[in-house]
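Bench notes, afternoon.
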Amino acid sequence: MEWGTLAVAAVGAVFGIGATLLTDVLRARREKDQRWAEAKRIVYVRFLTSLAQAHSRMTQMAFQNEHGAARQHAVHEAFLNDPQHSDAKSVLRELALAAPDHVYRAASSVYQQLREARDLLVVHAAGVDAPEYQRVIGPFFANLESLQQLMRDDLQPPSYRRVRTGEGRWTPSQHVSR
């Protein structure tokens, strides 16, 4: 056998092994990224659901004819006690671990707005119709929508993510660093 044939065979084997290793590394990275995105998606859905459910439970309690300390207790209990054991505060802590900083900051702000709504429901017997409550809950829902969009964009592959422009519009971005 000639040395040239052996050299070509050896180079071919090295390229074959290298290509296989590279393919395996890329596949493993893609699978890891998919698992991470799925874990974040689950936390995002849990957080948005917990906010919506806490708001619903609080407004239900606000419509009951409780006053004073009984009303305060009922609204606070509705805010804190999620029957599925995923109250907004505990899911916010999960989100702090899984989400990028800009998503976590937006989520914290929305959570704080819901707490302000809770505090207003405690003191205003008029409940959800009170102008003070409406001034808080309107921005809450607007920011909740923006948070949902941030989360959706964070779950997209980098080439499909969108960024908010200075005018408040969303535009596609080819390279968004998160």
